[in-house]
Amino acid sequence: MSKRLKVKAKSEGTLVLDAQGLSLHVEGDGDESMRARIEVAQRSGRRVALSALTPLEVRRTGKAAERLQFLLSRFDVKPVNDAVTDAAAKLLDASGLDGHECLVDALVVATAALCTPPVLLVTSDTSHIPALCKAAEVLPGSPKVKIVHV
Predict the structure, then answer these.
(1) What pLDDT, in 10s, does the model give residues 91-143?
(2) Torsion of CA 70, 29, 112, 79, to 10 degrees
(3) Cis omega (within 30 of 0) on the bond before 130?
(4) What are phi and psi of 145, to 5 degrees?
(5) pTM to 2 decimals?
(6) Phi and psi dihedrals of 61, rounded to 5?
(7) How many CB atoms lie within 10 A of CB 52?
């Protein structure tokens, strides 16, 4: 009888959820592909993270609120600190986007840019997020934030 060796996946990288990615996962039965993405990421050693602002965009009540709290306990909720706000300001400057209109998107991308690479950002945004991810390459270390559209 042959023994199968169990090889542990190297722990690297981060899957970052924006509001749409988290919302799809909170709904659970509404989007099996989002649940599967997160499970694959976790099995492969990738951290699942989000900005502390993201749950504010995805507020729920009742059973959905309970599910949201459970999911947040399993994810790495990143604080909005000086490093994140400084990076967000640089992203807005480099992209030429307006801080009033794009503040939350800039903070989410800045959070992603400061995570352990390689970084995948789950989003449905096709306007501001791509420009901010491109601008992230001007930050120290030139972090690349790859977009996964949902």
Answers:
(1) 999 999 998 999 999 999 999 999 999 999 999 999 999 999 999 998 888 89
(2) -20
(3) no
(4) -115, 110
(5) 0.89
(6) -125, 165
(7) 15
**What amino acid occupies position 89?**
A
Inter-residue contact 90 to 51 (CB < 8 Å): no
Tell me if residue 144 falls in helix, strand or coil.
coil
Q: Can you tell me the distance from the alpha carbon of 65 to that of 27, in angstroms, rounded to the nearest whole number?
A: 10
Q: Could you report how far apart the first and last alpha carbons of the chain are, in Å?
A: 45
Give the integer Cα–Cα distance in Å for 31 and 49. 19
Tokens of 106: 């800039």
Q: What is the pLDDT of residues 16-62, one digit of tens each?
A: 999 999 999 988 655 788 989 999 999 999 999 999 999 999 999 99
CA distance 18 to 112: 10
Name the token pair of 102. Answer: 């794009």
